[in-house]
């Protein structure tokens, strides 16, 4: 320490103070003591933890404190809970129920398509077998709304050939549904003067829904052809099946099954004032399971008055009233049913002859020869159907209750479905 002279000011020299101690640097991964709070005293909110840290730093003595401590990791907020779907609506009543159900159905996703049954291949074209078939490509109402084209189908092998065109196996591309595509040439239709007959066939067959009637799904045409979209009958014509049998005839059980199926189908047609007028083995088809189906409604007619005068059909199956030029009604189909039953059991029509005039004569006189192998019940049913007067023929309800049908076709088939 130095002192100045007299009259001067004294200057005192003080040594410099040592520098303050450097703050303690926390090692990597460690936190300062101000933020370190015991877990038991931790505040539930981060703001409270920050306030607690400030109070700790204020109470710490200058130049140090207690050293470095671990910083407590700030808690993370919990993840939000998953959103729960809204509860289903409570059922409504009255007129509001339909509206609420419609709104609910609109929100629901469409159901998955049904699994297709196992497919098989014959003739190079796929066809379905087993289980319930998929829905057809169209119905009568949908056919009026949709315009079909030939490009909508894959064409397969030919199934048959007729006077006015051919029939082909086909598959509708969108649904993979197997159908029979009947192709008719307009030039041949005009030449045969049967345009009106085709219109009537389409109008009648497209409105018939019966397991023993071939379904007509729709139609379309181009400049030269008319296409009919028909149900596919996998086993083909009954005529070919008949002539593949020994002696070209069916056993009684099979014949009775076919006659009972025809009786149900005809009862359905007659209830709708439809007369087929051309029943014969060539116009009967067999489905995949052997079920009988009436096809070719070219000569059919919708006759609410139930009286017709036109001479039409196939000579061997014509009734006496048609050959005599008299008016006829639905009992005409009963006569054809008796002719078919005879042919199923004997292998040939009952009035067949080399000359057409002899055939007509036998029909007018109802000359029938019954072979000895026919049972008495079979002969009785044929005689009740092949009656000259239409009103005296056994009705379809009586056919299904006949002992021969009940015995050989079984009571289930004989009594299935209501009859008019």
From TrEMBL:
SUPFAM superfamilies associated with the record: Protein kinase-like (PK-like)
Active site: 278
Record's keyword annotation contains Transferase: yes
Keyword field contains ATP-binding: yes
Coiled coil start-end: none
Record domain Protein kinase: where: 153-405
Gene3D superfamilies named in the record: Phosphorylase Kinase, domain 1, Transferase(Phosphotransferase) domain 1
EC number per UniProt: 2.7.11.1
Residues binding ATP, per UniProt: 163, 182, 231-233, 282-283, 296
Crosslink site: Glycyl lysine isopeptide (Lys-Gly) (interchain with G-Cter in SUMO2): 280
Region annotation Disordered: where it falls in the sequence: 1-147
Biased composition (Basic and acidic residues): 118-129
Keyword vocabulary terms for this entry: ATP-binding, Kinase, Nucleotide-binding, Serine/threonine-protein kinase, Transferase
InterPro entries assigned: Aur-like, Kinase-like_dom_sf, Prot_kinase_dom, Protein_kinase_ATP_BS, Ser/Thr_kinase_AS
GO molecular function term, any single one: ATP binding
Biased composition (Low complexity): 25-61, 92-102
Entries under Pfam families matching the protein: Pkinase
Catalytic activity: L-threonyl-[protein] + ATP = O-phospho-L-threonyl-[protein] + ADP + H(+); L-seryl-[protein] + ATP = O-phospho-L-seryl-[protein] + ADP + H(+)
Top enzyme class: transferase
Comp. bias regions, Pro residues: 15-24, 76-91
Similarity section: Belongs to the protein kinase superfamily. Ser/Thr protein kinase family. Aurora subfamily.
Protein name according to UniProt: Aurora kinase
Organism annotation: Porphyra umbilicalis
């Amino acid at each position: 320490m130095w002192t100045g002279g007299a009259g001067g000011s004294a200057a005192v020299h003080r040594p410099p103070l040592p520098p303050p101690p450097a703050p303690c640097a926390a090692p990597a991964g460690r936190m300062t003591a101000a933020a370190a709070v015991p877990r038991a005293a931790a505040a539930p909110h981060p703001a409270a933890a920050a306030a607690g840290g400030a109070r700790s730093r204020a109470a710490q003595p200058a130049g140090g404190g207690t050293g470095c401590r671990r910083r407590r990791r700030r808690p993370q907020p919990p993840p939000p809970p998953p959103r729960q779907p809204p509860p289903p609506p409570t059922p409504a009543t009255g007129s509001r129920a339909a509206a609420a159900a419609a709104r609910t159905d609109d929100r629901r996703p469409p159901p998955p398509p049904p699994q297709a049954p196992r497919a098989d291949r014959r003739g190079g074209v796929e066809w379905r077998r087993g289980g319930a078939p998929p829905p057809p490509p169209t119905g009568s109402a949908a056919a009026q709304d949709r315009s079909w084209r030939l490009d909508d189908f894959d064409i397969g092998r030919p199934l048959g050939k007729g006077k006015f065109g051919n029939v082909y196996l086909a598959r509708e591309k969108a649904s993979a549904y197997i159908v029979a595509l009947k192709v008719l040439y307009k030039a041949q239709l005009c030449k045969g003067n049967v345009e009106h007959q085709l219109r009537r066939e389409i109008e009648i067959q497209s409105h018939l829904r019966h397991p023993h009637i071939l379904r007509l799904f729709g139609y379309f045409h181009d400049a030269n052809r008319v296409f009919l979209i028909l149900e596919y009958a996998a086993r083909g014509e009954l005529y070919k099946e008949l002539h593949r049998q020994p002696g070209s005839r069916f056993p009684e059980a099979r014949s009775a099954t076919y006659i009972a199926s025809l009786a149900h189908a005809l009862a359905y047609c007659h209830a709708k004032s439809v007369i087929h007028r051309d029943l014969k083995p060539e116009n009967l088809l067999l489905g995949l399971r052997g079920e009988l189906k009436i096809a070719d409604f070219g000569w059919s007619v919708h006759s609410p008055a139930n009286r017709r005068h036109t001479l039409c059909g196939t000579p061997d199956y014509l009734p006496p009233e048609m050959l005599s030029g008299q008016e006829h009604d639905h009992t005409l189909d009963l006569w054809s049913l008796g002719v078919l039953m005879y042919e199923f059991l004997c292998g040939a029509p009952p009035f067949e002859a080399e000359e057409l005039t002899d055939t007509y004569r036998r029909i007018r006189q109802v000359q029938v020869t019954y072979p000895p192998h026919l049972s008495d019940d079979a002969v009785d049913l044929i005689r009740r159907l092949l009656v000259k007067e239409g009103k005296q023929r056994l009705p379809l309800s009586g056919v299904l209750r006949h002992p021969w049908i009940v015995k050989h076709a079984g009571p289930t088939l004989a009594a299935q479905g209501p009859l008019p």
